[in-house]
Description:
alpha/beta, Rossmann fold, 2 domains, 3-stranded parallel beta sheet, 17% strand, globular, binds glutamic acid
Amino acid sequence: MSNQQTLLKKTGYIGRFAPSPTGPLHFGSLLAAVASYLDARSNNGFWLVRMEDLDPPREPSGAADLILQQLSALGLEWDGEVLYQSTRLEAYQQTLQQLQVKNLCYGCDCTRRQIKEMGNVYNGSCRQRSLPAEKEFAVRLKTEAVGIAINDLIQGPYAQNIAQDIGDFVIRRKDGLFAYQLAVVVDDEFQNITHIIRGFDLIDSTPRQIYLQRLLNFSEPDYAHIPIIVNDQGQKLSKQHFAPSINTENAAQLIHRALKFLGQSPPKDMQQQKAQTQLRWAIENWDIQAVPKLATIPDDTLI
Ligand code: GLU
């Protein structure tokens, strides 16, 4: 039995925070870390950290270490070893092969522009072309018109018809890198993840992930999507939009602010307490139903 399976047997709950190390944590990614941590700990669960370092050109050196230092400085302690996706390429390759053997994949050389012209739902035009699934082509998964519905623990019901709303989707990119959708599903299964709490920007990826889980006979975790923080132009806080790194010297303030964004109403005087003390209070009092059922929250709401 693997370590993770032993963990699962003990608690029934394994959560995770899975940052892409494209830069240090900003307030938006911190919220996902805090929410997934609190939900795991309040359920006596395990909380794992997985570094989604699948895209080296977008990952400044040292970013992964910096994220881990920031988590530690905030008192967000994870269980076990950090799993680095860069060490998992063989597992992704094996899964891809499994899908290829079932004749569920094909090569595609359509450009971004062509896909935009299709209305961003891939129309399957490369399905019949039998392009070899070699490096210069993207690999797409053949999808069927099945409805996939989730009951998001925060946002409630959410559904998509994969073929109609998404179309055949990329599982290995044209540059040879494995796509997020494939890697995340392989690793959530590998780590026996039972609960996924993350930003709302990923809710529309969830049916694709469930679709893959069903094809591969994997277990299906529960999902919850927290609102994402947006700037005054409605853009997600991200490195791309120059979101500032959090400064862990203000750990107590940051945790207080995160708890308020997550609808947790921490007592006002708790702001004076250390981050760890606040987190202990928040574990005791965590109420996932108090998290706003919204897609976005403007950054300046609580200032
Ligand atoms: N690595 C993804 C990100 O940083 C998150 C993946 C996930 O939580 O499923 O946006």
